[in-house]
Specification:
The structure is a single chain. With about 150 residues, this protein is an alpha+beta fold. The chain is about 20% helix and about 25% strand. The protein is built from three helices and seven strands; from the N terminus they run H-H-E-E-E-E-E-E-E-H. Strands 1-2-3-7-6-5-4 form a seven-stranded antiparallel β-sheet. Helix 2 runs antiparallel to helix 3.
Length: about 150
């Protein structure tokens, strides 16, 4: 099941915060607690990770699955894009305008993120069994499914 992509926002006054164009943000009012979970079926997350996962628990702009560690996909405004600068970071091509994959926090699992014109998407698998390929494939699927 796919959902329509989040729309960009324009303030009713036509003004945006200094230095930020309307197309530089995700309209979080268009996201619901189920937006990401609806776009990423449990079967697809299980197939990519090779783990049986719980039904996704949604929050605005994100979805979490247990396998038993949490797997997370998040969609957020591009102004919040901040690639990890650690030595394990590797640039990716073919996903968004920019993308990377890196070891997760404290060396656990992997995080892969992509920057698009109107949004950024992150796929996070903080488990010791996670692979770089899993994080990249999860990011690729989320970016495609979220439009």
């Amino acid at each position: 099941m796919t959902t329509s992509p989040p729309t960009t926002s324009t303030a009713s006054s036509g003004k945006t915060p200094a230095g930020e164009a309307p197309e530089d943000r995700v309209d979080v009012t268009a996201l619901t607690a189920t937006t990401v979970c609806d776009a990423m079926p449990v079967a697809e997350v299980s197939k990519i990770t090779g783990r049986e996962v719980s039904h996704g628990k949604g929050e605005v702009g994100a979805c979490n699955w247990k396998a038993p560690e949490a797997i997370r996909i998040r969609i957020y405004p591009p102004a919040e894009w901040s690639p990890h600068g650690d030595s394990g970071m590797r640039d990716l091509s073919g996903i968004g305008n920019e993308a990377y994959v890196a070891k997760g926090s404290f060396g656990n699992g992997y995080v892969a993120e992509a920057l698009f014109t109107d949004r950024a998407v992150a796929a996070i698998i903080p488990a010791g069994w996670a692979t770089e390929e899993m994080a990249i494939e999860l990011l690729r699927a989320a970016a495609e499914n979220l439009g």
